[in-house]
Every structure is written in structure tokens, then in C-alpha cells.
Design a protein that fits this description.
Layout (H helix, E strand, L loop, with lengths): L4 E4 L3 E4 H4 L4 H23 L41 H13 L5 H12 L6 H14 L19 E2 L7 E4 L5 E5 L2 E5 L2 H8 L4 E4 L1 H6 L25 E10 L5 E2 L1 H7 L8 H13 L10 E2 L2 E10 L1
Parallel strand pairs: 3-7, 4-7
Antiparallel strand pairs: 1-2, 4-5, 5-6, 8-11, 9-10
Length: 307
């Protein structure tokens, strides 16, 4: 009895014994047939000639060449960057570059994004800045973050400092005085109160503080011991105006202590010193001076003299 045959696509009549060998022959045949059909279709498509001079419907010439971006290329339509940030550091760098390009201060951008990526609370202004960065680049590629707005308003932050100003960085208790283009640390509250009473402390970012060169520390304030008169107070005294260049640059001078130091001990009573100090502070030539006096300042000092 003749063996049964089965007709397979692409192979024609095939003996059944070969078809049932675990299905391997059939599967291989079908795969080969599909591959052959696709190859033939591709060859047919490739054989169609392309008219390089044909015109498109809008009148422009076509060449048949795809001039688009390569597979995987990406250009952000807002920022112009041609790649996705792959790390939070890349994301931060691109955000600073993009926002600086539209007028934001790079220090403020870096500060706000740093707080955001450390899950710390920010001000409303910083929150708006962070949302602008997200609108430009999308969220950071690594991790999940929320914009947390602080419930208490921190002191205003500045990026500009001036000579003689007291500054303190956000998150740091150290107070510095700006003198000669450098920051000088005021070591304790006693020195701060004695030498800079009444002055406002301006809050700056850590980046602004670190950008200012560091000078020598301000000497600690040592209360002046009352000077004992070398001779009995006679009660006869007068006041004199003297020109002095006080202290050294980078230091500060306590006005009252300076007046007492340059007065005659025999008549340097508390009342007389207070009168001389008031006259010194009222002198119009000293009006521009801050208290305490910056070292190296020119001062017209009223002192108490015997006689």
C-alpha cells in the first residue's frame, strides 16, 4: 500500500512519515516557507525603481532618501538639548543651563534644586523655580520627589554683599563681617553685641558665603576694666578734638573704649566719658561711620583732658 502524502506550502507533496517526526520537519518547512515569501516580497519592493526627480505634492523635489534623525535621537523642543538626562546630576546641570538661559540666577537655581533633590522644604519662589525646571526637562530620572513648601517664611536671601555688612548663610549660625572684600568671622555673641550692636544680619546662600574670600577672625571682645586715676580727680577738665586713624584694617574698634583710652585718667569719669563720646558721635565728620568703627577708619575723637 503506497504511503500517504501531505501537501505542505512551499514544498509540495511530502510523505506523512516525514511530517510526523516530532513535528520538526513541518515546523522547519513552514518557517522556511515564510522566510522565502518575505524575501521574495522584499526583492519585489527593491526592484521598484525610484524616480529621483519626481516632485512631491507641494512642488518640492524628492530624492527617495530619508534625511530624518537616526533611530533613538532626541531633541527637547524647548531647551534644545539633544539627549535625555540619565542621572540626577545630568538633570540638574541641564536645568541650571536652561533656566540661566532665560534669566534665572544660577546660584538660586542650584540652591533650589539641591533642596528639592534632598527632600527639603523650599520657599514658594523656589517651588516655582523647581516646577519651571520640571516643565523644561521633566522630573529627575532617578527617584521620586515632591515639592515641599515651607510653612514658615525664611529671611530674605541676597546674592549681593557690601562693605561693612554682617552676613550669615542659610543653615549656619556663624556671623561674618565684610571688610576689605573678605569675610571675617565674629567669634561670639559678646563680640557681636559689643562691636556691632544695632546692625542687621543679612542672610545669604551658602554659595554666596563660600564665594567671598576668608580673612582673619575678629578678635574677641574683652571688657575694658575701669581705669583707676593716677591722681585724685580735681574736677578741672576740658574737652579736646583729636584726629585719629583707629585700629588696624580687618579689626573693629569700640567707640566708648577708644574715647576712654585717649582721655586723661585723672578726669575720665563715667559722666565725662559719656559726654565726650556723645560729642564724638555727633561730629558731622563722623556721620558715615558705622558702629563699631571699622579698623583703619579716620575719626575725629572728642576726649577729656585735665586742666
Amino acid at each position: 500500500m503506497p504511503e500517504k502524502t501531505i501537501k505542505l506550502p512551499g514544498l509540495g507533496p511530502t510523505k506523512a512519515s516525514r511530517v510526523y517526526l516530532g513535528g520538526l520537519v513541518v515546523a522547519g518547512s513552514v518557517i522556511a516557507w515564510v522566510w522565502y515569501q518575505r524575501r521574495q516580497a522584499a526583492a519585489t519592493d527593491a526592484s521598484i525603481p525610484v524616480d529621483a526627480g519626481a516632485a512631491a505634492s507641494d512642488g518640492t523635489a524628492t530624492t527617495g532618501v530619508d534625511t530624518g534623525a537616526p533611530v533613538g535621537a532626541y531633541t527637547n523642543p524647548i531647551t534644545g538639548f539633544n539627549n535625555h538626562p540619565l542621572s540626577n546630576a545630568d538633570w540638574t546641570q541641564q536645568a541650571i543651563q536652561a533656566l540661566t538661559g532665560i534669566g534665572y540666577d544660577p546660584v538660586m537655581v542650584a540652591s533650589a534644586l539641591g533642596l528639592y533633590l534632598n527632600n527639603q522644604a523650599v520657599t514658594q519662589a523656589q517651588a516655582d523655580l523647581i516646577r519651571t525646571a520640571i516643565a523644561y526637562l521633566g522630573p529627575p530620572p532617578v527617584g521620586s520627589y515632591a515639592v515641599q513648601i515651607s510653612s514658615t517664611a525664611p529671611p530674605p536671601v541676597t546674592t549681593n554683599v557690601v562693605e561693612g555688612e554682617l552676613i550669615r548663610a542659610t543653615g549656619d549660625n556663624k556671623v561674618y563681617v565684610i571688610t576689605g572684600g573678605q569675610k571675617h568671622w565674629i567669634p561670639d555673641q559678646a563680640t557681636l553685641k559689643a562691636s556691632y550692636a544695632g546692625q542687621t544680619i543679612v542672610t545669604v546662600t551658602p554659595e554666596v558665603r563660600d564665594a567671598i574670600p576668608t580673612g582673619s577672625d575678629i578678635p574677641k571682645y574683652v571688657p575694658t576694666q575701669p581705669t583707676q586715676p593716677t591722681q585724685p580727680v580735681t574736677g578741672t577738665h576740658h574737652y579736646a578734638i583729636e584726629f585719629h586713624r583707629v585700629g588696624n584694617v580687618g579689626t573693629s574698634v569700640n567707640p566708648r573704649a577708644y574715647v576712654q583710652e585717649h582721655s586723661d585718667p585723672s578726669v575720665a569719669t563715667p559722666n565725662n566719658i559719656q559726654t565726650a563720646l556723645a560729642a564724638t558721635m555727633a561730629d558731622s565728620r563722623n556721620k558715615s561711620l558705622k558702629q563699631p568703627w571699622p579698623g583703619g577708619s579716620a575719626v575725629y575723637v572728642t576726649v577729656v583732658k585735665a586742666g
